[in-house]
Structures are given as C-alpha cells and as structure tokens.
Amino acid sequence: MMETYVNQHIQEIPLSSPFFRGKVERFLRANGLRMEALDSYYTLENADGDILAGAGLRKDVIQCVAVAPEARSEGLTAPLVSHIIAVAASQGITCLKVFTKVENTGIFESLGFHVLAQAPQAVLMENGRGLEQYCASLKAVRRPGRNGVVVMNANPFTLGHRYLLEEAMKQVDHLYVIPVKEDVSRFPYKARKAMIKAGAPDGVIVLEGSDYQISQATFPTYFLKDLSDAAPNQMRLDLDLFARHIAPALGASVRFVGSEPSDALTARYNQLMQEVLPLDVVEIPRLDNISASEVRSFLEEGNFTSAAALVPPASRPYLLADLAHRALLKELDTPLKPGLVGPDSNGAHTDMDDALMLKALSALYPFWAEMAAAPSVSALRELGLDAEKAMLSATGGVNTHKGAIYALGLALFDPDHIAATAKAMSRDGVLVRPGITGAREMAEGGYRQLFDDWLPFYRSTRDCQKTLLRIMSTLDDTCVIHRVGTARAQQVKAEAKALLEEGGELKDLCEKYAAERISPGGAADMLALTIFIDSIKK
Fold first, then answer.
1. Contact at 8 Å (CB) between 57 and 36?
2. Model pTM?
C-alpha cells in the first residue's frame, strides 16, 4: 500500500489559483488545521487527485503539515518534508523551523530536527543552530545583576513606549529591549529598531531582533490580531521559547509589559505571560492611553501634527518618511494617468512598470527619514545623491523618481523654508528655456503654484486624478518638453485643462499620450508632493 503512495509525484500546488487553494484549505480543515499565509505548498495525492499528505513553506518555516486519516500509517510525511528541505536548500535556506502538532515530533526528529519550544497542542522545532547562535550573541552582552527584558514591536515608537522603558529601568540594574523583527508592520524592522535606539532612555540596551520572539514561526496570529483557537497555543509556544532560551541567555529575572486596554489578543498574551513564565512579570500602566495604533490612525488620516504629538522627537523623521512613502504610493496607485505608469498601464514607458516603480520606492524608503533628520543642506545633498544611486541600482539604471527625490527631500528637510533650502542646494546657475519654469526654479520659489493652487484644489476634491489634471494644466513640465518640445507641451496643458473643465474620456487621453510617448513625469512628482504637503501642513 505504501508503495502506491510514495511513488506518487510530489507536486507544488499553485496557491494563486482559487480552485487549488480551496482544495488545500478543505484538506487542512478536514485534518484540524487552518490555512496559514504560505509561500508554497506541496502534496502527495492518490490516483483520484485527493490529497493524502501536504506541507507548506513560508520563508524558513514549515507549516500546515497534515496527513489524511486513511494514509497515516504509510510514512508519507518523511518523503514530503525531505522534498521541502531540498527545495529550501536550493534557495539557500539551510536552517529550517517547523511549526507542527506534538504527535509529529518523532517524525521530525528522525529528519534531524530538535525541539525549541512546546505547547499543549503544538511544537516548534529546528534543524540547524539558529537559536543556539542567537542565544550566544545574547550571552555576549549579558551583564551581572538584576536584568529585565521588554519585547516590543514599536510600530512606531511612542511616548508610551518610552514611559514603559523609563519605569522598567527603575526596577532593574540592566534593561534589554528586543524589537520584533518580523517585517509585516507598517514601519519596517530597521526603522522600528532605529526609533527605539534613538528614543529610548540612556542606558537601555537595544538588541537585535530574531525569528525566535513574536514571529511568524512562534506567534503568527499576533500579526493578524486574531484571538482564535490557535492563538493560545502560539502564545504558549512563544513564551515557552522565551523561558527556555532567551531569558537564561540574558540572565533575565523579570519581563516588563505595558497594559493593554483595547487589543484583546495582546491583553490575553499579557495575562498568559503572568500565568506561565517562571520569572517575574511586571505590567506597567499605559501612559495617558497613548498607543501606536492611535499614531497609525492619525497617519492614515494624513494628520502628521496629531501623530507627532504622541511620539518622541527622534521618532518624527520616521513618521515623515512614512507619509512621504505613502504619498508616492498613492500617486503610483492612481489609475488612468495620461502617459504615466500606474496599476492599469505603463503609460508612455517601455522601460518601467508598476512593479519596477515599487522596487524603486522600497529602495528609497530608508532615505526619507535620513533626509528629514539631515543636519545640514550639504548632508541633504549627499543623501539625495545616495538615494539616486540606490534607486538606479534597484531599477537596473532606469530613472523612476529623480524628480521626487529632489522635491520630497526639500520638503522633508524643512517644509517651512523650502525656498531657502533649494537656493542653498543650488551650486551653479540654472539654465532654463525662456518662459519656462524649471523644477529647481519652482523649488527656489517655494512651490508657490502648489500652495496657491494645487493644494487647495486637492483639499477641495480629494481626487488624485483631477488634481493631476489640474497640475498638468498649469505646470511647465520639463519631462514633456524634453520628449516632445515646447509647443506640444503647451498643447498638453490645454488638453488637460479642457478635460478637467469640459469633461471627456480620460481613457482616450491616456491612449493618446501613450501612443505619442508623452509622459508628464513632473506633474506626477508634484502630485506626490501635494499629497505629502497636505499630510504635514493642516
């Protein structure tokens, strides 16, 4: 019987297909599991196409391992997992973790895995020395005395987080902060860690995060804020790993948490921590109900002023960076933009598309906070040049956002004195065509058109398409001039104005400009800048 099954071809299921994804979900549900966010899923099936055994992979974690009842004596898990190990190795992943049921422990031990942590209905295992090496790095910084630990996401780092650390420091000789490393939050890990280091009280030791505390491996429902049946098991698994490995490596005798009045999952996690950890757990009341979720809500509304009031000064450049990034995303995600790249078209471009633009934005993200915190205009200039290099490296040499780097850099550095910053940035005279206002001249004039016209128009309509047309109808767009000349560029302005005032099919203009290779890139940059200025100046 086993011969029939193991000779079946191990196949990868196309999870992007609703049909095949539904098939996997039904198989897992029938075996007491739920579908997780997986990168890939592999199965063994019988001749009728029924799944007999399956296992998934998300980054370096094997999940959703199940075998149908009629095949559980056939030894199908071992060949299936061996196949996944080989697939991972071909991707350069040599240390795998597995999140599975307790009854599968023996199978995985036979494949070279060892137990990291255990809960009543789940076990976390690993086939490498990842945790051992991480704990060795913790032991290297351990100091003698009463040591405390805070594990925080800091998405973003607020005055409440700082208060928690200040109060915790009063109760220990040394306080360690472990940032959540999983990159599924609004602010990326590097930004969150940098905010903690910059905003924490003197003496706090900020460690490197890892996959061994509040991660997709140990506690995936944390990121869904899902207090489901699976959550308590994952909480216990995460806490067991902390108690067995992390706390001893740091010589920690106390863990600090902030009180949680609104998030049911985090409140349950804090409660369970009190129940199961074999060390002191101290809950510190929240400061004036300040929360990272409230800061994120203000940012979502485009309200920097209210968000900034809830964070330390060191976090504010990162809030500005978030808003700059969101402004660029909002411009990119706007459909039906004549001649421009968007979610629905490449416009007039053959060398760039939506995916390439997203790569560029990811490469530029770290520079926005640095620009906002730049100590001088010369430092800002150097950051701009470095940002251009990073953009070109990410896009294979395609200029996607050079104009945006310049405009947003000026606004990030000092939104109240854009003109003065632009003039200080200018080393040489500006050569422009007669009667044409270039990008640098606009900046040195403080973007008067933006403040006098485009921003009020955007605030009255909240419509990116219409605001783009408004900008196109009034802007001397050097991107258009470069492609089709001054005379055609003036016609473009008139066509945008007519469409805005008289109506018509925007799709027709998009097709026309794509055919003529007309791309109003300067207008796209100004739309992003308008959106950004709207969020920081209320």
1. no
2. 0.88
